[in-house]
Amino acid sequence: MASAPAPDADKLVDRHGRAIRYLRISVTDRCDLRCRYCMAETMTFLPRSALLSLEEIALIAERFVARGVRKIRLTGGEPLVRRDMIELAWRLGRQIGAGLDELTLTTNATRLAAHAEELFAAGMRRINVSLDSRDPANFRYITRHGDLTRVLEGIAAAKATGLKIKINMVALKGLNEHEIAPMLAWAADEGHDLTLIETMPLGRIDEDRADRFLPLPRVLADLRDRFDLVSDDHQSGGPARYWRLAGTGTRLGLISPLTGNFCATCNRVRLSTDGKLHMCLGHEDSVDLREAIRSGGLAEVDARISEALDLKPAAHDFRIAAGTAPAVSRHMSVTGG
Ligand code: SAM
Ligand code: SF4
């Protein structure tokens, strides 16, 4: 059942006048892969006791919907490694049409073949799948042990179910830059969209991110030489800038937080695995909604969400240079990518 709608005074507008319409939830910080730009090989994950329960996630998410959030993305870590993830999708799917416009997912697709039908049945229609390489050996290298076949099977199963797929590819200098143009051609053949992402300085990894940083303006210039790309004014409310591949239904998105941020139109906040509400991916500030729901229930959650609006900064300040520390200590997997 939908939560009672909040009065207008409770709508989520930050001190810079940006309305919050999009909530990303990291349902687990754990993952079955170890992508080199995302995680260190040896990671310490949160103890299970630190995680929000399914019920807590659902109650908090429902408060956000009551206060004007229209889109929820379940992410992680790898969301499909959490056992009750499908149950959560069913629960949140009930909000679609009752305040929520869209429930979606970001996944590495290793377990997608087994779950695609249920995700569709729960109300999902579009998902993001991370795929940084279509070369089995390179995929294994980037993910440290991933099996490309399983991922491609997962993508095929999702497509067969009717889910629209956007491929996320982190552009990595010297690692997959030669695969970007073929990835776009493949995505167009398959009817998928493709979004390219600049590597972001989030959490310590085993490499220097500066060594792999590939500025997307350079990638775009190269793609425009090879493909007929038409600028597209599509707005996802996200940080991507879009192009259309002429003669196809494929949209190319560029997320370039290092070479050109889109903070002025940011409409999103993130709920971490352990219940911290982060107003910006690139800042350490947060409010603790796990403590709030456990100590004071939903009234306390509402009060903390209102407090958090004042914490949303005007912009992040990502920089990547040799030897510099990450902008924040959290990995993307904790905050929810
Ligand atoms: N495990 C799922 C997956 O890989 O799709 C969901 C979580 S993952 C953190 C979400 C997205 O963040 C993926 O597309 C991944 O490539 C991206 N990502 C992770 N770490 C990143 C970083 N440091 N910079 C840029 N993108 C990153
Ligand atoms: Fe796991 Fe996704 Fe991070 Fe890769 S990018 S290690 S799949 S959370």
Would you write up a description of this structure?
It is a single chain. This protein is an alpha/beta fold and 337 residues long. The chain has one domain: TIM Barrel. The protein has helices spanning 54-66, 85-93, 112-121, 136-143, 148-161, 180-190, 216-226, 289-309, 332-335; strands at residues 22-28, 71-76, 102-107, 126-130, 164-171, 193-198, 229-232, 241-245, 251-255, 268-271, 276-278, 287-288. A twelve-stranded mixed β-sheet has the order 7-8-9-6-5-4-3-2-1-10-11-12. Helix 1 packs parallel to helix 2. The longest helix is centred in the C-terminal third of the chain and has 21 residues, at 289-309. The two termini are 28 Å apart. The model has no long low-confidence stretch (mean pLDDT 90). Bound molecules: S-adenosylmethionine and iron/sulfur cluster. Residues 31, 37-38, 75-76, 78, 106-108, 130, 168, 170, 197, 199-200, 202, 332-333, 337 line the site of S-adenosylmethionine (SAM). Residues 31, 37-38, 75-76, 78, 106-108, 130, 168, 170, 197, 199-200, 202, 332-333, 337 line the site of S-adenosylmethionine.
Q: Helix and strand succession? A: EHEHEHEHHEHEHEEEEEEHH
Q: What is the β-strand count?
A: 12
Q: What is the domain tally?
A: 1
Bound molecules: S-adenosylmethionine, iron/sulfur cluster
Structural shape: globular
Distance between the termini: 28 Å
How many helices? The count is 9
Please give the order of strands in the largest beta sheet. 7-8-9-6-5-4-3-2-1-10-11-12
What's the CATH superfamily, by name?
Aldolase class I
